[in-house]
């Protein structure tokens, strides 16, 4: 397991659990550098003062919040960091909610928690108590000078921590004004669609999905590294639209 | 109407539902511009060739992939376009799975799917898929291509609408091996201790009400900006330091329970 990215304490009530935070996810996307096509040299970003027309060293860069067109309030990093708040090394789980009440849309980034120094007993206790009560602990976490709402839950024998989206960051489905059909789907349509869903039902097996695009990019890179010219894939024929009932029937292939 | 980030059709079996992908989140973060500290002038970022030390126009920039041996492979836009996934107008549902089986760890970025066009057949097909999935607590897995990248996506019903969430691939989620989870027998909590911890959790239990949690960081950052605008000095708050907690877990739990129950008693 990769080294921890944060060490601190989780508290619930007066009990304290020393923990370490590890990333649970990693970006496997293929990343390129920008290079100059002519000579293959790395492209560097140069900061130019729009007033003086001269390069600005990184140390002289401040942050500006635009309060009106072209008018900025200037802050340095320290002042921005001041917004992080206190309790920088403690996550207080002051509320617990039923895991099933939280829609997955609220979960943002995922992390794993490991036990901190001599914290194994307390870690196991919190894990087992969350598992038994089917609850998720809710608290606040200050990470990289920013405070997050977090949820702590048991997952595959360890504790997982998620940063959470705030309610106001989510767009309400009602605001989409989705038009309704003139009549609701009838019983026969529901039956047929259910059969179709059943016929395509499978157990979720995440390892059966590969990032085919990533594979293709890496293949292209490998081929080019060997000095080969890449092959170009063919475009498939587009499908024609059909009406709902006959499409459902055709999908089931006479099994209805 | 919300802006379409993608337009195409959702296809399961031979049923095609024309849909648009629209945002399900809004960015409420405060965004900052880089300024030159000395004169407060905005900074313009230019791209320079690190060899020639001159600014280069955008069309002279291409992509370099660094190999493990330090070498570099240059890949052009044209070559990347050639391997772009072709089928760009369909969300192909490959299978339906039980939603509780899909751990939220796999969920990446959420969107909504809204019906495109007003024809009754499409609206009914949209409604049909939404109802059938919500009745059976199932979700659809499929692939779709957006901005030249192929995504694995999960489509499900939420609040009467179909949502599409891009997903992480299995190899993007780390193994929990090596996490110190205190699974050894010696760390197993005593039944009395576990009962007390569960009792504390139950005392502190409440319904999930996402609206009540405010982004205090965003609010504080706004205050910092406002105060700075008025010319005030901003100082970081002192760290609170480690919490004072009893070293004995059982004692901590018992004291917590006493305090919580006394508190609840007073309220009643």
Largest interface (CB within 8 Å) is between:
A-B, 179 and 175 residues
Radius of gyration of chain A: 27 Å
Helix content of chain A: 10-25%
CATH class of the domain at 6-27 and 83-168 in chain A: Mainly Beta
SS field, number of helical segments of chain A: 5
Strand content of chain A: 25-35%
Q: What separation lies between the terminal Cα atoms of chain A?
A: 50 Å
Mean pLDDT of chain A: 90
What is the tally of beta strands of chain B?
Answer: 11
Q: In CATH terms, what is the fold-level topology of the domain at 6-27 and 83-168 in chain A?
A: Ku70, Chain: A, Domain 2
Q: How helical, in percent, are the residues of chain B?
A: 25-40%
Assembly state here?
heterodimer
What's the average pLDDT of chain B? Answer: 91
Q: Give the biggest beta sheet of chain A.
A: 8 strands, mixed
Order of helices and strands of chain B: EEEEEEHEEHEEEHHH
Biggest β-sheet description of chain B = 7 strands, mixed, barrel
Q: Please tally the helical runs of chain B, counting DSSP H or I stretches of 4 or more residues.
A: 5
What shape does the CA trace of chain B take?
A: extended
CA radius of gyration of chain B: 27 Å
CATH class of the domain at 6-27 and 84-172 in chain B: Mainly Beta
């Amino acid at each position: 397991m990769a080294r921890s990215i944060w060490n601190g304490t989780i508290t619930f009530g007066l009990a304290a659990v020393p923990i370490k935070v590890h990333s649970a996810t990693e970006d496997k996307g293929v990343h390129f550098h920008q290079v100059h096509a002519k000579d293959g040299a790395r492209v560097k970003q140069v900061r130019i003062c729009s007033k003086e027309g001269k390069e600005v060293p990184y140390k002289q860069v401040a942050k500006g919040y635009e309060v009106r067109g072209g008018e900025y309030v200037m802050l340095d990093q320290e002042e921005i960091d001041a917004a992080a708040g206190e309790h920088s090394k403690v996550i207080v789980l002051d509320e617990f909610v039923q895991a099933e009440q939280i829609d997955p849309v609220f979960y943002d980034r995922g992390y794993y928690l490991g036990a901190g120094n001599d914290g194994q007993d307390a870690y196991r206790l919190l894990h087992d108590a969350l598992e038994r009560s089917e609850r998720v602990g809710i608290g606040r976490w200050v990470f990289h000078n920013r405070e997050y709402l977090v949820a702590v839950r048991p997952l595959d024998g360890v504790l997982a921590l998620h940063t959470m989206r705030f309610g106001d960051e989510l767009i309400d489905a009602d605001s989409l004004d989705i038009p309704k059909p003139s009549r609701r789907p009838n019983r026969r349509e529901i039956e047929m669609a259910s059969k179709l869903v059943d016929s395509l039902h499978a157990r979720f097996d995440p390892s059966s999905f590969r990032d085919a695009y990533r594979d293709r990019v890496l293949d292209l890179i490998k081929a080019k590294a060997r000095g080969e010219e890449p092959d170009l894939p063919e475009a498939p024929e587009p499908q024609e639209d059909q009406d709902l009932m006959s499409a459902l029937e055709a999908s089931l292939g006479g099994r209805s | 109407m919300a802006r379409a980030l993608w337009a195409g059709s959702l296809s399961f079996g031979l049923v095609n539902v024309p849909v648009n992908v629209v945002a399900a989140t809004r960015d409420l973060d405060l965004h900052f511009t880089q300024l030159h500290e000395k004169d407060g002038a905005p900074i313009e970022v230019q791209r320079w060739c690190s060899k020639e030390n001159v600014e280069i126009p955008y069309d002279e920039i291409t992509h370099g992939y660094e190999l493990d041996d330090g070498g570099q492979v240059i890949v052009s836009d044209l070559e990347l376009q050639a391997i772009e996934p072709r089928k760009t107008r369909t969300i192909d549902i490959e299978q339906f799975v039980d939603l509780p089986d899909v751990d939220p760890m796999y969920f990446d970025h959420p969107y909504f799917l809204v019906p495109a066009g007003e024809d009754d057949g499409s609206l009914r097909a949209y409604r049909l898929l939404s109802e059938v999935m919500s009745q059976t607590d199932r979700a659809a897995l499929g692939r779709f291509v957006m901005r030249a990248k192929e995504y694995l996506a999960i489509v499900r019903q939420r609040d009467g609408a179909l949502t599409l969430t891009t997903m992480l691939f299995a190899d993007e989620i780390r193994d929990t091996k090596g996490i110190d989870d205190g699974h050894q027998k010696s760390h197993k909590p005593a039944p009395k201790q576990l009962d007390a911890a569960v009792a504390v959790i139950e005392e502190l239990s409440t319904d999930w009400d996402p609206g009540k949690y405010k982004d205090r960081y965003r609010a504080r950052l706004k205050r910092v900006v406002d105060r700075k605008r008025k010319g005030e000095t901003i100082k970081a708050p002192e760290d609170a330091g480690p919490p004072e907690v009893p070293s004995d877990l059982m004692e901590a739990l018992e004291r917590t329970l006493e305090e919580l129950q006394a508190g609840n008693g007073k309220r009643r």
